[in-house]
């Protein structure tokens, strides 16, 4: 019986079968600096290269979580404490975003963007921080201090504009922007009122004619809303948590001519649209 020498390919097959349960594959040799005991910054074994535990070589910032990241809070696998989420992506902390900024709006969630809800204007060298629209994935943006641009103080607004709050829900959800007026004294034969498009999450204080805000427009319940609306500034309840104003036809049945019933306005939480009260016959 003739015995044949085993070919190199057979040795390779036997070796692979013997190492089937080992973490190293047989498709290619693995350099020594890819092992968990190395700290060369090559993607494994070093706290800064994607593996926080130099003894495991598992590419994990925490060997118990399996997040594949040198920083166990981001889990993006690159060893960099910043995340990979682009602007407009949902987030809960700055570490999840590629920009390093997560703007969180209470009750509505956060989005990655150019500025966050802590530093705000400080993140924007040429103007203020415009908050993201929670009804769209647009992310927060840095503006040039133009009318309608987000702000914290007058300093970031362009000449002739002032920073004012146009929408405030319980002190939690607040929109402050650069506008052309701060009070009626800044307007000639007009009144200063917030003109806000809630579904776009933007607006500004501007000079308008008395009674010029149309049905369903946002109006200032605590200010000159009745004066600004065509009829009245009606109260809209938001899930029992807060109240906002929307131009409507009535606040009570007595406001309806001909014995009609006053039907309260509403806020569509899905679209952000406001609807003022109406008289129903």
UniProtKB/TrEMBL annotation:
Top-rank taxon, per record: Bacteria
Bias type Low complexity, positions: 31-40, 53-75
Biased composition (Acidic residues): 41-52
Span of the signal peptide: 1-27
Keyword set, alphabetical order: Signal
Disordered: annotated span: 31-86
UniProt name for this protein: Endo-1,4-beta-xylanase A
Naturally occurring in which organism (per UniProt): Enhygromyxa salina
